[in-house]
Amino acid sequence: MAHPTSHTWFARHELGLFWRDWLSMMTAGKRGKELLLASVLAAMALGAHWIASAIIGVWAADGVAMTKANLVMLSGGGILFFTLMLSQAMESVTRAYYARSDLDLILSSPASSRRLFAIRTGAIGVSTLMLSGLIAGPFINMLAVREGWHWLAAYGVMACLAAFATALAVLGVITLFRTVGPKRARLISQIIAAVVGAGFIIGIQAVAIIYYGSLSRLDVLQSPELIANAPDVSSWLWLPARAAMGDGAALVGLAIACFGLLGFVISLSSSSFGHHAVSAAGVSETKHLETRRGEGFRSMNPRKALRHKEWVLLKRDPWLISQTLMQILYLLPPAMMLWVYYGENSGFLVIIITVLVMASGQLAGGLAWLAISGEDAHDLVTTAPVSERALVWAKVEAVMSIIAVVVSPFILAMAFVSVRTAVVAAVGVFLSAASATAIQLWFRVQAKRTLFRRRQISSRTATLGEAFASIMWAGTAGLAAGGSWLAVMPAFLALCIMLAMKVVAPKEV
Amino acid sequence: MAGAGFALEISGLEKSFDRPAVSGLDLKVKAGEFYALLGPNGAGKTTTLRMVSGLLMPDAGSISVFGIDVKRQPIEAKKITAWVSDEPMIYEKLTPYEYLEFVAGLWEINAQEAERRATELLEWLELAPHAHERCGGFSKGMRQKVALAGALVHDPKLIILDEPLTGLDAGSARLVKDVLLNRVRDGVTVIMTTHILEVAERMAERIGVIAAGRLIAEGTLDELRAQAGQDGSSLEDVFLNLVAEHSEAA
Which residue among A284, A286, A302 places its CB closest to the CB of B106? Predict the structure, then answer.
């Protein structure tokens, strides 16, 4: 048995907490669902391997040699995964500093907080690896089956990248702590994490749109210009890609660099962990004054009061804005497409409509969760002399008005190209947003707004329903804009999804 | 109007979750009375009061507030009722001033009148210096005072409080008690659950003891002493004796 407060003892403690937290997240806290969860995960793993096999089949039809083109492709894919890892690591490191769950106990105990932070940083690296491994694993496995077992070295590269991402995340958060202070550090690091997570994909799509007029991020990685201008095969830039392809020396070199950096960062930062955690703990105690308006109380009916409250709460929570409005970032590529092809023809609008409709559904889902489930003063609102119907309508109005503000510029710009297409887009956006809102209404659970990050795991059925309904409405709008009668098919499927959601939604107590 | 002399009339109230929480409860509270509802953990106090406030639907039985049937006319009943829970539910990103403005909007109180009451309440509850600070940085006591101000700003005839003094410091607790007693003097009915028996002993005109979802004893402190056969005893002794007797009988 490990000696109390030793590294092993802390590691066991962390592992136990991580496992329970993960299981509780995956089963939504319901016991006896472990077997079902295992079955679902196994089915998903099979499906992911099937998709990976299909994708790899196209790329590796003639084998994967160590050519410049393949190194560019692998490195591009690696950067995609690395941005995900960095985003996840930054989010986790920030949480480790600001979560007070057991910090009071540990910092007031005679145990070494340096040791705890060292273990916690390592655990962040492991969880980062696991997350990206879930996505990359099927591709690595299928490459190993098709091309040879040397491809399993790619798992080693993933571990190196996870260590590197964790080291960068710790350095980044500590730098923010020291430069902008603990209050702003949390917000900035969470926004950076979100932007990093989406930034690379959006950036590469933007480049693809400008040069090729397509939304496929792989087009850029296969362009002859890029391959011609890329460094030679022997360049150190290809070290991770060569390591992934089974080059043992490259893997060892990469491991020394990445794990060495992580070790250095841990030794550098763990001593200041207690100090930073204590200063982070004082953040919630800071005063935040609002400027008093001169005109006194506004005359409001309940619906206006509820709408106004929702807008004020959202406006004053930059973190929630960054989380909910992340969907808007995904609208940047289609916005760029609108700008690049404006006036040339109206065919490109079909692509924009589908993205717009899908993003509206996702954005509405997040906002509806905040307004309906994330009601911090649930008792107050429920005991108010307002009918349930009026309450719900006020919240739906608050959500839909925000969606309208976000998408209106796109719809207006479309209307100048084609009024018919703009009308189709507006109807699609409305249906997608209304469906997501309705699903959030049917699956509402009382929760604190601060639990927004976990909203998707509180009901996976609702999350999946929301996503599929948005996709189907996007398909409907895209096909309708293209003048195809096939639009009735996804519309019918969307209605079936909504009906199914209504049927399986929990009954109210 | 039936039962106009009573602020609250509960008859045959039942509510079950995994097991029965309230089982055929009958209770009457007079208008203008300070009534304390006591009981061990899990006795059904909070469930009962949540049903009165409209937060839960009863499985069976009836509830009327000043003669208004809570099931049939919930909006009318809510207009004259206020609910304060042990865990103050307020918005961290709003200031007390904005919170009270929001409550006034929900109860459709005239804006000028609501602002006058809000200013008065913020003064009484010593929140005026913090009226324009976001509630996120407030202590538990300050949050509870904001929640109480929200309950009082619409001038309710019936105030229901579930463990309102939990976690409050002595000064804040005294302030909350004074505000409640002032309201009772003005004719408002207050129903409060508490585990601090001394508070019930000092403040309540009548006390109800609830166990296993039923009212097992009720009356003034002297009447309860008589029921328990413990003249001159403290409320704590009387309460423990009544609950123990009920457990043995069950």
Answer: A302
Q: Of the candidates A284, A319, A346, which is a domain's last residue?
A: A284
Enumerate the β-bridge partners of residue B162: B193
Please tell me whether residues A430 and A468 are part of one structural domain: yes
Q: Which residue, among B113, B117, B174, has the nearest Cα to B144 in the 3D structure?
A: B174
End-to-end CA distance of chain B: 38
Rounded to the nearest 10 degrees, the angle between the axes of helix A388-417 and helix A419-442 is 160
Measure the CA–CA gap between B143 and A287, rounded to whole angstroms: 14
Which residues from B are below 8 Å from A when comparing CB atoms? 53-57, 75-76, 78-79, 81-83, 85, 89-95, 97-98, 101-108, 110-112, 114-115, 118, 132-134, 136-137, 147, 150
Residue A34 maps to a domain: no
Query: A399: closest CA among A288, A274, A311?
Result: A311
> What pTM does this model have?
0.72
**Within an 8 Å CB–CB cutoff, is residue A384 touching chain B?**
yes
Task: Please judge whether A296 and B111 are an interchain contact, meaning their C-beta atoms are less than 8 angstroms apart.
Answer: yes
Name the residue range of residue A387's domain.
302-504
Judged by a CB distance cut-off of 8 A, whether residue A308 touches chain B is yes
Cβ-based burial of A305 (10 A; exposed 0-12, middle 13-18, buried ≥19): buried
- Give the per-residue pLDDT at B243: 81
pLDDT in tens, B198-212: 888 888 999 999 988
Question: Model ipTM?
Answer: 0.86
Task: Pick the residue from chain A with its C-alpha nearest to B95.
Answer: A290
* A297, A313, A386: residue with CB nearest B91: A313
Which of B53, B105, B136 has the CB atom closest to A301's CB atom? B105
